[in-house]
Structure formats: structure tokens, C-alpha cells
Amino acid sequence: MHFMNNASPPLNVHDLTVAYQRQPVLWNVDYAAPAARLVAIVGPNGAGKSTLIKALLELIPRATGEVQFFGQSYAESRQRVAYVPQRTTVDWDFPVTAHDVVTMGLYGRLGWFRPVTRAARLEALEALERVGLADFARRQISQLSGGQQQRVFLARALVQRADLYLMDEPFAGVDAATERTIIGLLQALRSEGKTALVVHHDLQTVQEYFDDVLLLNMRVIAAGPVATVFNAENLKRTYGGKLALLDQVGHQMVLAGRTQ
Amino acid sequence: MSPFESLSLLAVTEWARVFLLRDYNTRIVLCGTVLLGIAGGVIGALMLLRKRALVADVASHAALPGIGAAYLLMESYRPDSGRWVPGLLLGATISAALGLLFAQGMGRIRRIKEDAALAITLSLFFGVGIALLTWIQALPTGHAAGLSEFLFGKAAALLARDITSIAVAGGIAVGVVVLLRKEFCLLCFDSEYALASGWPVHGLDVLLTALVIMMTVVGMQSVGLLLIVALMVLPPTAARFWTDRFEPLLWLSGTIGGASAAGGVILSALVPKFAAGAVIVLSGSLLFALSFLFGTRRGVWWRYRGTAATQRQIALDDLLRACYEILEPYLHSPDALTEHPIAQSELLQKGRWSLARLQPLLRLAERSDLLRRDFQDRWRLTATGRRAAIQAARNHRLWELYLIHYADIPLVGADRSADAFEHSLRPEILEQLETMLETQSPRLTVPSNPHAPHDPKLSATATEVRP
After folding, report:
1. pLDDT, tens only, B184-229
2. CA–CA gap between residue B170 and residue B332 (Å, rounded)
3. Which helix (DSSP H) or strand (DSSP E) does residue B409 occupy?
């Protein structure tokens, strides 16, 4: 397996700063993601969670800083990194089927000018099956529910057979069935030794779904295993004065502590 | 031979001459514009999917000052050489490219949105172009320059060498799209993902824009720069009404583009009073209108038909459910559902319909073999009607239960008509609902599923309906 004989962490960020129009939105991010863990990126709106992912993938320019994937630059390790963008970033009226979208995950491996092969389409179909959408393969994508669209994006990342998955809010606005599917997939990926960094909004499910957490509010507030890092004090430092929310989460955590 | 006969004979020979392409000139024009239509349709489809349909419009308008400037430049270099077409087209290309760069640069300024930047560029460049053109017209040699041909096109006067340039440009454009269709599809659908996957998104965009400029410049001579955008926007928009797939959309758009060009050229050859460019655009619009109305994917006609069918189905379901509710007190006798008569007044008492609405509905149910009428004007369910009535009542009650107990779970693609209901719920929820119905709510009963393998025991169901 990859992660056993590879000493470099899946992701190593050193002193990353990102600025929009001279206004810094991320300061001095230092972070190393451990292998075979599910990591939640948590923080308030505008904390730079999506920005962090986009800066890692060089979708937006970095002001300073160094990013390495498996000890290499992103250009060298692209095939080992898969990106699941927010569902709302594309036009779902586009004339393609669910199957077509998943096949796009294989374009990189196919290379320039090559038409899509039968083997590639078969592989895409298998990925659709893994996310429970085999029956929907021939549907035009606007005829899928929000959760199904999210799963199509997930399947597109799966066919890349990457070792690190960067997901931008995969749980936003999805139904319960999709949430279970995504969690099942994440756990399967972890058991294969793969890592996932997931921008996550729902504080109440962090403990249940994730191993590690990266608390972010324009800089890294805290990072590490959920058990040690995800506590009321760190959340307060991340979310500042939004006490009502914190109380609610604190209550949840007390409840969780009692039942454990 | 009467004058009338000779006239009609003349008309027939004229039509035959056009349609059989006897005319060398018609053949040339047809060939060139059809090639242009095909390539324009294919490239236009990509621009439309990239959400940049306006770019073609800006490119064509921004080409005008380049034509004027090239004319002046060549004229000052050597008098009377200003009408050299390749030089004019080169000027047009450079100017169109500058216009798009200008628009892009302006779009970078935070307070100017992309559409505003495009509109400003279009009017600015076109304004400069018109100013140059009027100035040239006033020059001693300028009047004969005929530069205004580029505004409205001169399809009827296309020459063989124009066809060559159109064929080469169109061939390049279509060839590039064939080679890079998968890359362009990814670019148009999800450029961010493409960028993250390492595709040169910017380079692909530049290539696509270059193809647009090329087709615009080549097409200006025949259709005119004011109307060339129609050949890039109408065909793909029309094609979208027929297909939900990327590649078929490209080729269908090319076909529609070619067909509208052919239609336009033939029509304008028959009725020479109209400029070919205008007729091409009009025949493209006609194809668009037909697609908009009758396109199988989202045409207005099919959507109307679909809505009407759904509404009919809902109305019939309501009627059958009312019948079931009326018959429910008599379910203890085995054949009550098909044998017990229902009077029209009983249905009216339900208060769901006026007499005026109930009567056509009953006739519809009769035509659909769901109800039959006896000589006393009373109604009975047929065998089909019985099954449908049970289904309708069952769906309705399960649906109510679902709303009461499970409404916080989002339902995927639910619609409350027909038996779609039970397929849109997860089996475990359906099962729970049915158990709940038996145990907890004795007042709210559900007849069993007529599709179930074991035959339903109708008489076993309770007798009271929720008010």
C-alpha cells in the first residue's frame, strides 16, 4: 500500500498566506495531514475554508507559502489528489448525463485528443454503483436531486483512484441517504489507507464522522485528533462571540460525553 | 399556350434551376454558406455552453474598425490597393482580438461586471468603426471601396476563392472540435475542476476564442458582421431543445446551422429582393421557433401535453378516491367495489367538484374504462377502475401519514400521483407506515396494495375515513 512505504504526509502546508485584492484571507497556515485519517475542516463563514482548499490546488494564487502532496509539488502529484468542488459551482442544466460527469474524472488519465474508451465508461459506471446511482447513469444531471448530484461529484473523484481527497462541503443540503452514503465511502477510503480533508459545517456530527479536525478562522486555531482538539475552548477561539451556537454545541458535546 | 400556363412553366423552371443547383453562382454561394453554417453552429454550441454567447457578437462588432484601418493603411501604402480582401480580413482579425482583450481587461476592474464590459467594448469599437467608415466614404477613392458590404454581407456575390477560405476555416474549426471534444466538454461544464486536474483552461479558452474570431471574420463577407452572431447562437439554442447530450448537441447544432444557411440561400435565390444574410438568419429563427415549440427535450408543446396529462391523472385519481370513500361502508360485501352503484349526487356531496366540472370528468373516466354508467344514470367501478381506486385511496392515505410522521425527511423526486408514491419512499419507511396505520391509527385505514403478490383482502379493512 502507498501509505505504508511513503514517509511523506499526504499534505504538508508551510506558512501559507492567501490574499484577495491585498486583503489577506488566510494567514500563515501550517498544517500536516496524517495518512489514513478523515479530517474535518471547521470554521465560521468567511474563515477561508474553501479558500484553503482552492489555494492548495493552485486554483487561486498564493501570496507566500509552500504546499507539498506526498512530498512533491501539486503538478507532480496531481493523479494522487482528487477534488470534489461545491455542488453549486457548476450549471446542472448542462447537457451531460450522470455517467458522462463521472467519466470526466478519467480524462486526465486518458490524455489529450484520446476519445473516451469503453473501459473508461465501464469504470465510471462502477463508481456510480459505489455511490448507489447505477440506475441513474443515463439521467441528464438536472433530473437528479441535490444529494444525487453530490454523489455524482463524489463518484467522479472516486474514479481518479487518488490517495488524498479534498472535499468542499459535500454534506451541504443533501438528504439523509446521501449523507450515509458519503460517510460509508469516507470510511471505506480510510480503510484503504487514504486521507480525506472535508470542509464541514455541521459541528454536531464532527465527533461522529471524523478522526481529526482542523479549526480554521483565517489562521489555524488548532489541529489534531477530534478527541483532544475539538473542545469548547478551541471552538470559542474559532467562532468568537457566537455564543448561542456554542452553547448548543457544548450541550451536544456534554450529551455525547455522557453516552460514551 | 395561355399566358398563365407559360408563367407557371417559367416559375417551375426557375424553381428547378435553383433546387437542382444548375446555377454555378447558386452552387458556390450555397456551398460556402452551408459550410459556414455548420462550422458556426458547432463553435457556437461550445460558446453557448461556456456561457460566452455574447463574445461572438463583440468579436464581430469589434472587427469593423480593423477593416477601416486596414483599408486606410493599404491605401496610403499604395493607392488603389485598399480593397485587397486578405488585408482587410487581417485587419478585422487583429481588431476583433484587441476588442476581446480590451473587454477582458476591463472585466478585471472590480466594479465593472463582465456583461457591462462586453457591452462597452462592443459599442466603443463599433462606434470607432462606423466613424472610420463614414470618413472613408467621404474620401475621393472611398466611395467605391464598398466596405459597407462587410456590415450586411454579400452572400449572393460570393466567389470561388471566398469559398476556399470559408472551407479552410470551417474545416479547421470543426477539426479542432472533433479532436478536443472531450477537453472542451470538461472546460464548459466545470472549468475549475479542469484547472485542478491540470488541464490548461486558459489555453483552451484562448483557442476557443480564436476559433470564434476566425469564423466571425470569414463569415462577415457572406452574412455580414451584424448577423454572423445569429449563426452562432440560434443553432445551438435550437439544438438544445432536442438533446440532453453534449456531442449530439454539437453535431445537431452544426446541422441546424447548415440547414438554415441552405434554406436562406435557396429562398433568397428564389426571391432575389431579399439580402441572403437576412434570409439565412430568418430561416435559422424559423428552425429555432420550431424547436422551441416541438423540441422533444423541453419544447413548449410537449411540456404542455405533459402538464395536461398530469392534471388529468390527478383529477381521475381524485374521482376514484371519492368513489372508494363512498363505497367504503359497503366493503363487508365481497363485490361492493364493482357492484354497488354510486349516484352523481353522492359525488357532488363530497364538495370537490361543481356539476360543470364533475360531468366531463365522469365522461373521461367512462372513456378510460374506469367507470361504467347504468340506465339509471348511476355509476359503478369497472375491474380496472376498482384496482385504480384502491391504489388512489391507498396512496393518498400513505401520503397523509408520511406528511404527519416523516415530513422532516426530504423525499427524493416525490410526486403524489399514481403508484409512484411507494417507489419514492424507502421500503423500510413504507413498511413502518403500514404497520403504524394498522396499530396506531384505527381511524385512518389504508387498503392494501393491489400490486402485492398476495391478493388483497379488501373486506378486512376498517370502515371509517379520516374526515
Report:
1. 999 999 999 999 999 999 999 999 999 999 999 988 877 888 788 8
2. 77
3. none
The span from the CA of B113 to the CA of B105, in Å, is: 11
Q: What is the pLDDT along chain A (260 residues), one digit of tens a residue?
A: 444 445 789 999 999 999 877 778 899 999 999 999 999 999 988 889 999 999 999 999 888 999 999 999 999 999 999 999 999 999 999 999 999 999 999 999 999 999 999 999 999 999 999 999 999 999 999 999 889 999 999 999 999 999 999 999 999 888 888 899 999 999 999 999 999 999 998 888 999 999 999 999 999 999 999 999 998 888 888 888 664 555 556 566 655 554 44
Contact (Cβ atoms closer than 8 angstroms) between residue B446 and residue B434: yes
Q: Are strands A164-167 and A195-199 parallel, antiparallel or unpaired?
A: parallel
Its CATH architecture, for the domain B19-298, is Orthogonal Bundle (1.10)
**Residue B416: pLDDT over 60:** no
Q: Check CB contact under 8 Å for A104 and B190.
A: yes
| CB-CB neighbors (< 8 A) of B409 in chain A | 175-176
DSSP H or E run through A120:
helix A118-130
Half-sphere exposure of B88 (CA within 13 A, CB side): 22
Residue numbers in A near B243 (CB within 8 A):
95
**Domain limits, chain B:** 19-298, 306-464
B195 touches chain A (CB under 8 A): yes
Cβ pairs bridging A and B (under 8 Å): 80
Q: What gap in Å lies between CA A116 and CA B54, rounded to an integer? A: 31
Q: And the C-alpha cell for A86? A: 461545491
Contacts of A59 (CB under 8 A, 6+ apart): B192, B195, B196
Between the two ends of chain A, the Cα-to-Cα distance in Å is: 33
A110 touches chain B (CB under 8 A): yes
pLDDT tens, position by position, B356-406: 888 889 999 999 899 998 888 889 999 889 888 888 888 888 777 777 776
Q: Does A106 touch chain B (CB under 8 A)?
A: no
Candidates A21, A84, A104, partner chain B, best to mutate (most B CBs within 10 A): A104
Q: Length of chain A in residues, anyone? A: 260
The minimal CB distance from A59 to the residues B51, B185, B195 is found for B195
- Whether residue B195 and residue A101 make contact (CB cut-off 8 A), yes or no, is no
The answer to whether B3 faces chain A, any CB pair under 8 Å, is: no
With an 8 Å Cβ cutoff, are B240 and A140 in contact? Answer: no
B298 inside 8 A of chain A by CB? no
Interface test with A, best of B183, B185, B243 (most A CBs within 10 A): B185
- Using the structure block, give the residue that is written with the C-alpha cell 408520511: B402
ipTM of the complex: 0.91
Full-model pTM = 0.80
Looking at CATH, the fold of the domain delimited by B306-464 is given as Arc Repressor Mutant, subunit A (1.10.10)
Do the chains contact at B49 and A107, CB–CB below 8 Å?
no
Q: Are B88 and B70 in contact (CB under 8 A)?
A: yes
> B45 with B236: CB under 8 angstroms?
yes
Report CA torsion sign: B343, B348, B351, B352. Answer: positive
Contacts of B245 in chain A (CB under 8 A): 95-97, 100
Residue A116: list chain B partners with CB under 8 A: 182
Interchain contact, A176 vs B180, CB within 8 Å: no
> Using the beta-carbon criterion (under 8 Å), do A115 and B182 form an inter-chain contact?
yes
Q: Do the two domains B19-298 and B306-464 of this chain adopt the same fold?
A: no
More confident call, B410 vs B280: B280
